[in-house]
Amino acid sequence: MNSRMASLQSQSVPLGWASLVFLAYALVAATTLTGAVAARPNVLFIATDDLRVELGCYGSAEAKTPHLDALARRGVLFERAYAQQAVCNPSRASVLTGRRPDTLKVWDLKTHFRETLPAVVTLPQHFKNNGYVAIDLGKLFHNESGAKPPIPFCDPRSWSEPSEFAEGPHWRDWVVPGDPAGPKVKVGAVQCLDVPDEAYLDGRIAAAAVSKLGVLARKGEPFFLAVGFWKPHLPFNAPKRYWDLYERAAISAPVPERMPEGAPAIAGHPWNELRGYAGVPKQGPLPPEQIAELRHGYFACISFLDAQVGRVLAELERLDLAKNTIVVFWSDHGFHLGEHDLWAKTTNYELDTRVPLLVAAPGVNRGGGRAPGLVELLDLYPTLVELCGLPAAAGVEGRSLVPQLRDPSQAGKAVAVSQHPHPSYGQATHMGYALRTARHRYVEWRELTTGVVAARELYDEVSDPRETVNRVGDPVYRGIVREMEQEAREVVARGGRWPEEKARTR
Ligand SMILES: [Ca+2]
Fold first, then answer.
1. I need a labelling partner for 187 at 20 to 30 A (CA). Which of 42, 208, 262, 404 fits?
2. pLDDT of 310-355, one tens digit each?
3. Ligand 1 midpoint to CA 215 (Å)
4. Per the domain annotation, does 113 fall within a domain?
5. Domain range for 476
6. Burial class of residue 256 (count of CB atoms within 10 Å of its CB; 0-12, 13-18, 19+)
7. Are residues 324 and 445 in the same domain?
8. CA distances (Å), 498 to each of 472, 492, 501, 503, in order?
9. CA 88 / ligand 1 centre spacing (Å)
10. Contact between residue 289 and residue 297 where contact means Cβ atoms under 8 Å apart
């Protein structure tokens, strides 16, 4: 009850008609105010970098992720969420503008979306324009600019305050014992030192987020707090105690070891990202002990990341903000750890395009649940706009996930679309479009200048979830291939945008 109502009720004189009318207004105003507060929840938007679907709550037999598993229990876990392109900049630009890479014309690490679509209103900018405090701690947009003249990749106009921990090369997040200035050149792919969490960026980002939550709680204004963790992106550096959670001898080997049978060469890549680190062979296979070390390091980084998320979520609870804060946890794309004879990202396969996505929206998803329907990362923009009661943003291509948050059994999309140019980095010659339906993954590689289809792939995700055999030439799948070809034509014609009016599922 507000103070005005309390003082009205405490009046000792009998209430006249005028006072009763005023009291009625006050009651309506109080109800409206309460409604307005409930309709303006805060958003804690947690991004991670290169985290594939490798969490305990997703059924990983190896990853130790107690804090994210707890978040999954109080939110909705999206079992089939897909990135629009499996590499940092295009994926993040897509999520944060709600547009597909083809619409943005951002498919590489260098192009900033402000070069191609200068006036676009980003997700945090839309919140800022509608009365929210928008804060960026960590990597949300891409972390390095290739534009000339340089454009700040953290996109200052999206935020209420300057970004922190948002830019710089990944290799600099490395401890040189005795030298606080850190490395001057790119160093190794793994690091295991007995150092505090704050020795690395993600520990410092978690500490900054904890501190910022205190400030925001005292302010009392609605906030959109983006926390962008840099892990488990290479280099795999986590404090030793996170490495110690795993026994290297017990860590599984990559399965399958080879590219899918019948896959075109254009679907793979020579792992340039990993090979750029010291100690990694410039060509040829990795020795088994290095494969085990790298996989160990990736898992250590996942647990390190999980602990940092836990610190932030614990502070949200402690400040009593959790009940009115929507928590979103997502990764910009997946990752290969030697499976398919591939390392890192930049393919159109399930391991690279599928991502973890958890959404806890207090009062919306009572009791949480697991949503099996297909969704796309660019759906997050309209979802948060709807959840917070903001006006719809123009030009956004995603579809709100609110129906699935209310009832996780609701159907998802008929098709989730991802795309990736070939080669993975540098001057592209082809674009590969991946169409993921409930049962199949169809990939079409088209020559960029002519549009001619150079190669095709089809995987049966039910009988072959690890994608070991390309079925595109298998007569059993002839009908499916014909249908998918038609659908791919429509997707390409629409610039990678799936026609929402088509509600077919298979
Ligand atoms: Ca990434």
1. 208
2. 999 999 999 999 999 999 999 999 999 999 999 999 999 999 999 9
3. 29
4. yes
5. 418-493
6. middle
7. no
8. 21, 9, 9, 10
9. 4
10. no
